[in-house]
Amino acid sequence: MSSSTNGKGTAALFHDQPDVMANLLRVQHQIRHARTISELRFLIVNSEAWRLVPSHHVVLWQNNRLGRTKITEISGVDAPDSRAPYMLRLNGILRAASRLAPVADENYRPFHAGDLAHDHRQSWGEDLAKYGLWLPMATSDGAPLGALVLFRNQPFSEREITIAVHLAEIYAHALLMMHGGLRRWKRRQSMLRIGVVVPWLVLACVVVAMGYPVTLSVLAPMEITARDPVLVRAPLEGVVETVHVHPNATIKAGDLLLRLDDTTLKNQLEVAEKSLEITLAELRQSRQLALGNRPEAQARLEPLQKQVESQNAELLYLRTLLARIEIRAAQAGVVLFDDADAWTGRPVALGEKILTIADPNRVEVTLHLPMADAIPLNPGNAVSLFPDTDPDHPIPATLRFIGFQPKMTPAGVPAFLLRAELADGVPLLRIGTRGIGKIDGERVTLFHMLFRRPMIALRQYMGW
To answer: Domain 229-258+327-358 has what CATH class?
Structure first.
C-alpha cells in the first residue's frame, strides 16, 4: 500500500467501523499519559488496540545505547531477559527478517520461516507462531526508530495490516515525542553513534600505542662510592689506643691516623733485652773458661752463640712491631669510617679493616639491582641518577660493571651489584650521597614494558 492508498483505506476503514476509531482514540489517550519511556514501551506491546489485530506476540525492536538493535519489549513479559535462549533465538530471527525486501511501494513486510536463511529457518521452532508482520517505525524524514513485529499462526489480512500500520505510525510518533521531538532524537542518535565509534577509536589508538617502541628501564638504589680506595688494616694484633682523625677528614700522605696500645710489646721487648744481656754474659764467661782448655766451656760456646742470634732476631721483630704501632696515611684523601669513639679501646685482629682513604676526585656509582627487577643489561647502557639531595635534576652516568651473581644486601634483598661512572663534565658528587638510579635497557614495545611484571607474576603463579 502506498501512503495515499493507505490513507484512503484507513479513512474508509474508520468510516465503516466506528469501533476501530474508538480503539485508536483510546490508544492515543493512553500513550499521551505515559510518563516514562519504559511505561510507553510496555503500553505499545500490551495495548488493547491489538485486539483489532489478534497476535500471539507483539515485539518492539529498537537500538540500544550501544547502537545495536535488540528486543526492548515483548507482550506478556514484564522484563525480558536478553540472555535467555528464547530471546537470543528471537533476536537472530528478527535480524534476518529486517534484511528482507518490503512489499512493493510499502514499508511493511509479512514473512514466515520459509523466507529466512536456512540456519534461521531451523531456529524458528514450533514454539514461535508461523507468520510474522514487520512494521517499521520511522520519523517524518524516514530515519528509523525501530520496528514492531507481530507473530501469529494465521496470515494477516489486508484490513489487519492497514490497522497495524496505522498503530505503528502512532507509536512511532509517541516514541519520538517521548525522546523530546525530532531534533532532540536526532541529536541523541548522533551521540549514540559517537558513543559507539569513540570506544572503537580509543581501542584502536590503544592497540597502536601498545606497539610503540620504548626503552625498558629499571630503578635501583644507588650510592656514590670511592673508586680504588686505600684500605687501612691492622698491621698487628692489638688494641686501638687513640684515633687521631675524625670521619670525613681531609688528610695528607704520612699523617698519623691512629695508634695501637704498645704496653704488651714494650714489656715483651724489655724481657727480650734482659734475656739477651744474660745470654751475652754467659757467652763471655764461657769464652774465658774455654781459654783454660776446659772442655765443658768449649761445648757451650756454639749453643750460646745460636741463642744470642735467636734473641737478636726476636728483638728485631719486636722493634719492627713497635714501629707499626703508629698507623700513617699512605696517600692523601678523605678518611672514611663511622665513629672514632667506637674504635677507641677496641681490640683488632691482624689484617682487620679499620678505615678507608678515598680520593674525592675519583668516585663511582654503586647500584644494587634487586633480582626480581632484573632486565637484560650491558656495559655502556645509560644511567640517570636522582640524588636524594636534588632529585629534580638527574645526573647522567654510564654502566661499566655488572655483577655475575646476586648477593644479599644489608636490607636482606638479593640483588646484582652494578657500577657506573659519571659522565664527563658532570660535577662530582660527595662520597656517600644516596638516591635512586634509573638504568636504561633494550628497546621494547610499550605492551612489553607495561605487562612485563604482570606476566612474570602470572608465570610464577601458574608454574610455566
So the answer is: mainly beta
CATH class of 3-178: alpha beta
Q: Packing angle between helix 158-178 and helix 37-46, nearest 10 degrees? A: 170
- What is the secondary structure of 317-334 as a DSSP string? HHHHHHHTSEEE-SS-EE
The set of cell numbers assigned to 379 is 656495559
139-195 residue pLDDT tens? 766 677 788 999 988 998 888 888 888 888 888 888 777 765 445 545 555 565 555
Domain formed by 217-227+359-462, architecture: Beta Barrel (2.40)
CB of 349 closer than 8 Å to CB of 376: no
Q: CA-to-CA distance for 84 and 247, rounded, in angstroms?
A: 80
Which residues share a beta bridge with 383?
Answer: 397, 439
What is the reported pTM? 0.52
pLDDT in tens, 244-292: 999 888 999 999 999 999 888 889 889 988 988 888 888 788 777 766 6
Task: Identify residue 288 by its one-letter amino acid code.
Answer: Q
Q: Which of 233, 214, 213, 241 is nearest to 347 (CA)?
A: 241
